Amino acid sequence: MATKRKHDDSPPSDSSQAAPDNGTAPASPQAARVAENYPRKRIAIACNVCRFRKTRCDAQKPSCGFCTDLGIECTYRKPTVGDRGKASDPPSEALDNIERRLSELESRLEATEQQVQMQNAVVMSPNASHHSGMLPPQELPSRRSSVNRPAVDYITSVNATSNGSVGTPVTYDFAYRQTATESQTARPSLLTFRAPPYIPVESWDFTKEFYDDEILAGESLSDQLVTLLDQPVDLARRTTRRLQQSFVENFLRWTPIFDQQTCVSAVELATSHSFVESSPSTCLTFFLLAMGAITEDKGDYAKSMLPGLDYFARGCQILERLSLRTGNLMTLQCRVLQASYLKFAIRPMQTWNSITQAARDCMHICSSRMRDHLSPAEQEAFNRAFWATSTIVHELEATMKMFPVGIRQFHEMVPLPQFEEEDSGFYYFLAQISLRKFLTQSLEVVGYHSGRVIYAPVVTRELRKQVREWYDHLPAVVRFPLDATPVFDSRKSFLRGQYVALFVVLGWPSVLKIMEHGTGEGAPFEQTAVAAMKEQAAGCIRGCCLFLSVADEQLMDRTMGTHFSMWA
């Protein structure tokens, strides 16, 4: 019993010591040494080579089977007894390095904020020269077609990774007249051109002179409208029928915003009220008579008064009273006709003032629930007016860099017009919409701005391919030849001019890049890249020559496409 009692009173062995439940280290030094020396077989079982390659290791020593087969040195991880449970403080050098890097980042952030503030201070100056190489900010997701979205993503990735000199500046010339996306569309025009240093030509800027002339022309036009309101106007039945026919032939076949029955009904309703009622129907009648008069007249436009200006004056007077009727579809159609008359008369600034009001009304309607309550016929009328407004807006943006209003953001919300009749005017209208979208979207991703070339040959090649596919799918009634052969159809000739101009726009960056490369500036290119560059530049030059021949046919007579042919 004594022996047994003596055995029970002896201290327990280390192997039978229970570990504490709270996870703390054993209290006795001997227990701590046992925990430190506990074999970590799961970590040390594989050699360093097998651990790195994540292959199965047989853990044979001095060399495992895998290393023996490869004939390489086999090493095992050295035991780290006692290191795992010790918390080591970071060295002072690491802390000093972190502090130094934080100070550098703070100083850079302050410098960037100061630079942005300085740029914002001068962004309102239209003649300021900005040559910042900063990358553009990330754009908010917007409604874009399948043509534009991948191209913009490609340009953004190229700017961010490959070539910093291609990046678009944060601030732009004419920034107060452009949104972030449309600022990339700057290129040579009749108004302005800032030549980069590698082009031996002088720059020009006639923007102020242009606006001075347009403002004076608007004042003169306003005085004429006031004078004509006090004079009688020819509203005889024979005259109105003749002007209706001219309107249908020379306008509705270009821009069918409504059918012929709507035209006839509006004139009959206005006639029944003796043209004295200030209603949308009477306003529409005056505008379509004005359009019929100006498109019918083939005489000299150098005379003091435009054809149909007396009808136009009365339509403008009624439209001014209806200016608050944002949701009225006939009022929207009147604004489209008003802008079309001014566009036909080559009054670009007045056209822009009129069509932007129509664009704002379209955007207000799209932003409301009004479209949900429209009948199918009213919905179709709105769709036609929307796309007619969009084509005029984008034509002025493309040729004159006018103020963008953002109607492009609603393209995906409004379906294309639907036509039941088989008429060439409807096919032309759809072709015009699609081609105009091609042109405006291409100007966003390829072009030239502030001496910096937005050069993306892969994007250019893909866009050219898609434009050719567009031509291949054209209906026969609106298809045009690809050379300078006369077509004796003003609409086909106008489509051909836009088609050729699109290839000129796509090839223009390659022309600038070749000239820059010839002066020895910029990074060198591979031989294949130079060949592709020359091929695209040659296409641009050929397109310029072809457009001059096509425009000559367009300018033989004034049509709805004359304005674009003059400014493109």
Automatic annotation (TrEMBL):
Query: What are the record keywords, sorted?
Result: Coiled coil, Nucleus
InterPro entries to which the protein is assigned, alphabetical: EcdB-like_regulator, Zn2-C6_fun-type_DNA-bd_sf, Zn2Cys6_DnaBD
Tell me a Gene Ontology molecular-function term this record carries. DNA-binding transcription factor activity, RNA polymerase II-specific
Low complexity bias locations: 12-21
Residue intervals of the Zn(2)-C6 fungal-type domain: 46-76
| PANTHER family per the UniProt record, alphabetical | ZN(II)2CYS6 TRANSCRIPTION FACTOR (EUROFUNG) (PTHR47785:SF6), ZN(II)2CYS6 TRANSCRIPTION FACTOR (EUROFUNG)-RELATED-RELATED (PTHR47785)
Protein name, as recorded: Zn(2)-C6 fungal-type domain-containing protein
Species this protein is from: Paraphaeosphaeria sporulosa
The organism's taxonomy opens as: Eukaryota, Fungi, Dikarya, Ascomycota, Pezizomycotina
